[in-house]
Amino acid sequence: MNPALGDLARVFLKLGTIGFGGPAAHIALMEDEVVTRRRWMSRERFLDLVGATNLIPGPNSTELAIHVGALRAGVAGLVVAGLCFILPAVLIVGALAWGYVRFGAWPQAAGLLAGVQPVVIAVVLQALWRLGRTAVRTRALAALVAGAAAAAFAGVHELVVLSGAAVLWVLGRQAGPRIAGTGGITRAVVIWPLTLGAPVAGAAAFSATTLFLVFLKVGAVLFGSGYVLLAFLRADLVERLGWLTEGQLLDAIAVGQVTPGPLFTTATFIGYVLGGPGGAGIATAGIFLPAFVFVGLSAPIVPKLRASPLTGAFLDAVNAASLALMVVVTWRLGVHALTDFQGVVLAVVSLLLLRRGVNSAWIIAGGAIVGLLLGP
After folding, report:
1. Distance between CA atoms of 53 and 47, rounded to whole angstroms?
2. Which among 65, 76, 202, 331 is placed 20 to 30 Å from 87, CA to CA?
């Protein structure tokens, strides 16, 4: 095997196994591995890739893994990094789905989460500090981050925050007619009505083809958080097709949140509940396939964007707005994770260990052990 492919497989299998906490945490873990520890790329290049993933639909952290793989080892690296990041979560979620179907419930993990979540907050804060020192080089960019964060806190959609920040930033640097090309990004919002479906009177007959197409559509058009994913799946699988109950959908989202790796593995759980192992494979392939296609098409463009003064300024703004979105996500995660003395202590100790250079994987493992021993 190509040594670069072996390195990618080892790194992303590990990250897929320990990657609790959602996209912000995954990005922080990847930054630690591929920039700080292995020096596969500069922090500036890493930020460009983060910005690029925010401009296409799909699971951001998975797309970032795919981007890193493509940069490291071409098309083969793209496939290896993406599959290795997804695989651990798919296997774990598949096992939980088997237990759910067999016993009517999924195993509780409150103690594990109580230990892992505060550590995740610390890892993300460390990454925000490092990425912020690179992305926020001027007072104007700092003001842009503050404005984007305020908009995100106010409930403005993520894509509107990103495109709006980019347009405002470029307008401040270039003549008006030269930015016409950036308008295509804001037009992406028109895909949202495609997710709406009218409820049906009764449940439709289960179809593997329909299952694949539902998740292919979600993977191809979804921007935003897990709560947006919930809205998409509810419209199709609960209201339009009648294949799931509200409770089953909430259980599926919960499983995606308490397991490591991308939240989109919720599709694996739903597919198993509806169609067994075959359904799990079909749903998983449907929701993740667009990410590989989109990254494969956009990866060659990212270096060219940075080389142009105009599009370079555009990327600077997208990077700053992406950082603002991570700040907002971290704040919201912290509100839920740091609710007691144990959580605060775990977060502070984790920050101190990270500052001393301890590998984040060991700190997350330690937090999991503490959580299991002490309970929530």
Report:
1. 10
2. 331
Q: How far is CA 240 from the centre of its chain?
A: 27
- Contact call for residues 87 and 248 (beta carbons, < 8 A): no
Query: Which tokens hold the place of 371?
Result: 């959580």
How big is the chain by its Cα radius of gyration, in Å? 20
Outline where DSSP puts E strands in the chain: none
| pTM recorded for the entire structure | 0.66
How far apart are the C-alpha atoms of 369 and 375, rounded to whole Å?
10
Looking up tokens 């502070």 gives 348
User: What 8-state DSSP symbol labels residue 235?
Assistant: I
The residues, any chain, with a CB within 8 Å of residue 100's CB and separated by 6 or more, are: 106, 251, 255, 269, 273
- Checking phi first, is residue 20 left (phi over 0); if not, alpha (psi -120 to 50) or beta? beta
Sign of CA dihedral 12, 18, 24, 30: negative
- Determine the pLDDT at residue 121: 80
CB 186 within 8 A of CB 156: no
Q: Which helix (H) or strand (E) holds 330?
A: helix 309-337
DSSP assignment of 248-281 equals HHHHHHHHHHHSSS-GGGHHHHHHHHHHHHHHHH
Which 8-state DSSP code applies to residue 154?
A: T
Q: 24: number of CA atoms within 13 Å, CB side?
A: 30
* Residue bearing tokens 């305020």: 150
Give 157-207 pLDDT, tens digit per residue. 666 787 788 788 877 765 444 433 333 333 332 332 333 334 444 567 889
**Residues in contact with 138: Cβ distance below 8 Å, sequence separation at least 6, in sequence order:** none
Answer whether 16's CB lies under 8 Å from 89's CB.
Answer: yes
Q: How far apart are CA 97 and CA 299, in angstroms?
A: 34
